[in-house]
């Protein structure tokens, strides 16, 4: 009656993941019982205690996980075609990384409980993935891409996968509500997480992998282009007399799809080059890339060049030109357009039309005059000419914008007689070929830039000799840029209300006009004129 003969107890734990604390408490209990002089043994049925007894649980985890993954891969290879089996395996790898990431974020240790968590997650994910991949393998001809059968499979069985996941989650919630157990609630929470993860991997990750891995694999294997691109059906070298070419239902020239309209020459198509003589325009339509040994489908990006919208020959009074949505002159784009002398990237379709990089169209000619010229052919050489202006300065500085006061003081002034290359914008300004600096073409109605091609060799030499003499006469104290008075006269600070400044192309000088009354004046209006 005053001594302890024997003790037997069962330790009930609140939560099995606190294995370190439970091991410490078990050892303390054993010490208390053993202090009475009676041999004591700690008997336990806790899963976490069993995990604590495993000294090298991480090693055992790795040893069991490796063979398990191999078994999963074998099952996939036996039940699916090789490509779909590898796709499903990649999806399972993503699920495993998802589990490990969550474990790392929650600081969950490697023990028997988390090992069971991994098995549960991968098992549910494998079940859902196999469900979709098996349906995908039976969805259609294997000549289609991965994305097509996966999409068909999702249409067929995605509802089943989502419904089974929702039912599992609902069952876990009901069980959790019926049982007042903290440990069971933890398990239900884990189950809900892995069920949601498996559904997400099967319905979202799997199609995503199909759209990413397949193009890369085909690209690296050299059998197909990685991503769809724009190609133009080119007849410039073949010079066929037909209107275009029919699409094929397979990679067979005889398998013509007569239900689809003929593709006209010059048409731009979006698809992928198989690099084996065929071009895929859609999931089940194809075009040959070669005819009689001549390539007829050329990537639009390879034909892109930079052109300038040129108004020098047309002399249109408009500010620019509206883009077209198709190769029809009246099919104007509601918002897109380009100003004269803007640079536009695109391709000349060799049928009188130009296709921009954005997919719009512009005519190559208007009223029989060419309005689009390659950028490298548009620039011309001009000479800074002071023969008529007789300005008391050494030259002119570049302008950052088409404003006389917006002087670029970070670069040296251009001396009279020097040559610059660029484009006359036909509005009193010259744009340098750097495309971000400008010079006036006229001052006080006389030219200060002369096209080099209009000067004979003797005139050019005379112009440069006079410029050198004038610069020497000015000495070091001479101004580098035009006098302030000339700048203010060319560009007034502020005009009265309704007055604007324009440029007369015939007189080669600026003028002023009143938008309200229509009045014009060569002199700057002052006050409330």
Distance between the termini: 123 Å
Mean pLDDT comes to 77
* Low-pLDDT regions: 10-17, 43-56, 140-144, 219-223
Q: How large is the share of residues in beta strands?
A: 15-25%
The major beta sheet can be summarized as: 5 strands, antiparallel
Task: Report on this structure.
The chain is an alpha+beta fold. The radius of gyration is 40 Å and the shape is elongated. Helix 4 runs antiparallel to helix 5. The strands form 10 sheets. Strands 6-5-4-1-9 form a 5-stranded antiparallel beta sheet. Mean pLDDT is 77; it is low at 10-17, 43-56, 140-144 and 219-223. Helices cover 38% and strands 21% of the residues.
SSE arrangement:
Layout: H1 19-34, H2 47-52, H3 57-79, H4 82-105, H5 112-137, H6 147-178, H7 182-221, E1 229-233, E2 244-245, E3 263-264, E4 268-273, E5 278-280, E6 286-288, E7 290-291, E8 294-295, E9 297-299, H8 300-303, E10 305-309, E11 320-324, E12 332-339, E13 343-348, E14 353-356, E15 361-363, E16 365-366, E17 369-370, E18 372-374, H9 375-378, E19 380-384, E20 395-396, E21 414-415, E22 419-424, E23 429-432, E24 438-440, E25 442-443, E26 446-447, E27 449-451, H10 457-474, H11 484-490, E28 499-504, E29 509-514, E30 520-521
Antiparallel strand pairs: 1-4, 1-9, 2-3, 4-5, 5-6, 7-8, 10-13, 10-18, 11-12, 13-14, 14-15, 16-17, 19-22, 19-27, 20-21, 22-23, 23-24, 25-26, 28-29, 29-30
Helix pairs in contact: 3-4, 3-5, 4-5, 4-7, 5-6, 5-7, 6-7
């Amino acid at each position: 009656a005053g001594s302890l003969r024997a003790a037997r107890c069962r330790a009930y734990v609140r939560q099995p993941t606190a294995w370190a604390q439970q091991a410490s408490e078990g050892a303390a209990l054993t010490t208390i019982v053993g202090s009475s002089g009676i041999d004591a043994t700690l008997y336990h049925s806790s899963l976490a205690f069993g995990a604590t007894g495993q000294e090298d649980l991480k090693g055992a985890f790795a040893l069991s996980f490796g063979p398990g993954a191999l078994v999963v891969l074998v099952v996939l290879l036996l039940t699916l075609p090789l490509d779909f089996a590898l796709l499903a395996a990649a999806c399972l790898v993503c699920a495993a990384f998802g589990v490990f990431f969550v474990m790392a974020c929650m600081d969950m240790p490697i023990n028997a409980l988390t090992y069971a968590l991994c098995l549960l997650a991968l098992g549910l994910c494998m079940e859902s993935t196999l469900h979709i991949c098996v349906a995908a393998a039976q969805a259609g001809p294997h000549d289609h891409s991965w994305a097509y059968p996966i999409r068909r499979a999702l249409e067929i069985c995605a509802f089943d996968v989502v419904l089974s996941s929702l039912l599992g989650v609902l069952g876990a919630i009901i069980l959790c509500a019926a049982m007042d157990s903290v440990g069971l609630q933890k398990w239900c929470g884990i189950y809900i997480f892995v069920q949601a993860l498996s559904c997400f991997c099967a319905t979202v990750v799997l199609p995503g992998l199909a759209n990413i891995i397949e193009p890369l694999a085909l690209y690296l294997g050299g059998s197909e282009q990685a991503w769809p691109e724009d190609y133009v059906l080119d007849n410039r070298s073949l010079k066929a007399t037909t209107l275009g070419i029919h699409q094929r239902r397979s990679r067979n020239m005889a398998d013509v799809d007569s239900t689809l309209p003929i593709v006209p020459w010059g048409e731009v198509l979006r698809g992928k080059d198989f690099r084996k003589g065929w071009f895929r325009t859609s999931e089940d339509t194809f075009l040959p890339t070669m005819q009689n040994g001549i390539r007829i489908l050329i990537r639009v990006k390879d034909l892109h060049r930079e052109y300038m919208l040129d108004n020098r020959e047309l002399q249109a009074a408009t500010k620019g030109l509206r883009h077209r949505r198709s190769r029809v002159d009246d099919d104007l784009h509601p918002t897109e357009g380009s100003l004269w002398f803007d640079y536009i990237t695109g391709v000349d379709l060799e049928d009188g039309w130009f296709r921009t990089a954005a997919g719009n169209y512009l005519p190559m000619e208007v009223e029989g005059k060419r309005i689009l010229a390659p950028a490298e052919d548009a620039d011309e050489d001009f000479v800074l000419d002071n023969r008529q202006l007789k300005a008391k300065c050494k030259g002119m500085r570049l302008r950052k914008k088409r404003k006389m006061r917006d002087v670029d003081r970070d670069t040296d002034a251009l001396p009279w007689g020097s040559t610059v290359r660029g484009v006359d914008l036909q509005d009193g300004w010259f744009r340098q070929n750097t495309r971000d600096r400008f010079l006036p073409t006229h001052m006080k109605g006389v030219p200060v830039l002369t096209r080099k091609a209009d000067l004979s060799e003797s005139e050019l030499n005379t112009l440069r000799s006079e410029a050198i003499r004038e610069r020497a006469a000015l000495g070091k104290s001479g101004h580098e840029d035009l006098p302030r008075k000339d700048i203010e006269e060319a560009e007034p600070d502020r005009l009265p209300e309704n007055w604007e400044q324009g440029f007369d192309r015939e007189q080669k000088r600026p003028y002023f006009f009143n938008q309200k009354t229509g009045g014009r004046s060569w002199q700057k209006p002052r006050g409330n004129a």
